[in-house]
């Protein structure tokens, strides 16, 4: 499921846009400086509450976004549709803009059912954007949105294997999906054996039933790559069980402390799936 079309963030009423909006959307950095020197405010909002910073981030124009932020633009302005500059940066797949906004105090907690930065980054499969968000303290990695579910579930729906891997390694709850529908249900529906393998490696329950009473295996095609992967992974090794138990005991907030457990590097790497 796609979040919002780009047109949701481009105004229908173009007369509401200021020259600052236009310059930011086109990445015209020098023109921004000229306009501010002429007395234009840095944060003019349209009737839909779109700011020039929103436009710069949607276009992935790092220099323009930095200039606006350095001159006082609000990093947490929210449009009528719930989009923040951080969301727009994830939509444009600009990891540089994401990091820049976080440095200027952009909140990862400005979550809207249709415009969640972490869900958008996960769906886009953009590893760098997602990693930047997850490095932020308290990033809502397991937040479940109506219809969309968690970021992990959304990534499985979008067949974004890179996002699935980043989320799982960062401590996302492998069982948290969309109500009774698990990430594994979504991965099997999409027929992605590599995503199925990742989820099972991180302890996903292949016997979990959704609202219709179906397990993930019930959704797989007979003799498909997905069904073979699930059957091959039906039994965990002792090492795998120990790894999952240690990770659960540490919890997401303390996974980074695994390196201080005085274990051989090879075991630490296996514990952290490196």
CATH architectural arrangement of the domain at 1-140: Alpha Horseshoe
Which class best fits the helix and strand makeup? mainly alpha
Q: Give the termini separation.
A: 30 Å
Radius of gyration: 21 Å
- CATH top level of the domain at 1-140? Mainly Alpha
| Proportion of residues in helical segments | 40-55%
Mean model confidence by pLDDT: 86
CATH fold name of the domain at 1-140: Serine Threonine Protein Phosphatase 5, Tetratricopeptide repeat
3D structure, described in words:
Among the domains are: 1-140, Ankyrin repeat-containing domain (Serine Threonine Protein Phosphatase 5, Tetratricopeptide repeat), CATH 1.25.40; 237-274, Elongin C, Chain C, domain 1, CATH 1.10.750. Helices cover 46% and strands 0% of the residues. The protein contains 15 helices and no strands. Mean pLDDT is 86; it is low at 1-14.
What would the keywords be for this entry?
274 residues, Elongin C, Chain C, domain 1, mainly alpha, elongated, single chain, 0% strand, disordered N terminus, Serine Threonine Protein Phosphatase 5, Tetratricopeptide repeat, 15 helices
Topology:
Elements: H1 19-26, H2 29-37, H3 52-58, H4 62-70, H5 85-91, H6 95-103, H7 117-124, H8 127-134, H9 151-157, H10 161-169, H11 183-190, H12 193-201, H13 225-232, H14 238-250, H15 265-271
């Amino acid at each position: 499921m796609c979040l919002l079309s780009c047109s949701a963030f481009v105004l229908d009423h173009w007369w509401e846009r200021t020259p600052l909006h236009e310059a930011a959307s086109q990445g015209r950095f020098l023109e921004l400086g000229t306009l501010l020197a002429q007395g234009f405010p840095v944060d003019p909002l349209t009737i839909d509450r779109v700011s020039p910073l929103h436009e710069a981030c949607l276009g992935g124009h790092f220099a323009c976004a930095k200039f606006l932020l350095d001159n006082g633009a609000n990093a947490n302005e929210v449009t009528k549709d719930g989009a923040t500059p951080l969301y727009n940066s994830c939509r444009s797949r600009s990891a540089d803009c994401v990091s820049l906004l976080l440095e200027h105090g952009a909140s990862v907690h400005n979550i809207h059912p249709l415009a969640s930065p972490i869900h958008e980054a996960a769906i886009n499969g953009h590893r760098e954007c997602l990693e930047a968000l997850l490095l932020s303290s308290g990033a809502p990695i397991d937040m479940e949105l109506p219809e969309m579910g968690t970021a992990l579930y959304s990534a499985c729906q979008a067949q974004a294997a890179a996002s699935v891997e980043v989320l799982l390694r960062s401590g996302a709850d492998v069982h948290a999906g969309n109500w009774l529908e698990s990430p594994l249900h979504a991965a099997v529906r999409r027929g992605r054996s590599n995503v199925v393998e990742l989820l099972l490696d991180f302890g996903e329950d292949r016997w979990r039933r959704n609202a219709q009473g179906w397990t993930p295996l019930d959704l797989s095609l007979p003799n498909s790559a997905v069904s073979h992967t699930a059957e091959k992974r039906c039994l965990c090794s002792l090492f795998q069980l120990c790894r999952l138990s240690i990770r659960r005991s540490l919890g997401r907030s303390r996974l980074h402390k695994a390196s201080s457990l005085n274990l051989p590097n090879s075991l630490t790497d296996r514990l952290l799936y490196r």
